[in-house]
Predict the structure.
Amino acid sequence: MLSKVITISQQKGGTGKTTLAIHLAMGFIKYHNLKVAVVDTDPQGSLGQWFMIRSEKKISNHNLSFKTASLWGAQYESKTLKKDHDIVIIDTPPKIESDARPSIEASDLVLIPMTPSHVDFWATEAIIDIAKKANKKIMIQINRANQRSKQIIKTNDYIKSLNVPSVNIIIGNRQIYASSMGEGKTAIEKQRKGSAVDEIKKLSEQILLELNQ
């Protein structure tokens, strides 16, 4: 497989972009033995804080690299990282609109996390528009969701109306995702089995399948 870039983008905050980026990265490493770089373009620096905790605790970073970049610098950084990584994941800040363009243009796939809410529905279309104009693959990920909620049906109906591919796996609103990050880890490092482990494994498999098509 040629090296690929995934940009995780969503205008609205609170959709779990950073948590998704980190778990997807570790899923690629653990289940597919890939070498992965994560690029933090969010000034809030949550991804960097996670990596710092991880390094201080001497948790293994085998096959994992971390870089920071501006939104405009992400394009150059990802090209450089592609030379010796299988996957580069760019984590972007919310409220970026046109500023998202360089990181989206650098990508092979734009992954858009969306919680089951109308506010997220409205925020999603601008990112889709930018990605379509850049002629990039798009996938929507339902994230931080209660799978028993009636809103899931409305969310799936909305995604179908957009005529954009979506990930089959719904990522649940599970405490293990947040708590593991606070320790510089991920749910799949904290647990051997469980719903979160199944979700991330299946997510990594489907994303790789899409990238290889």
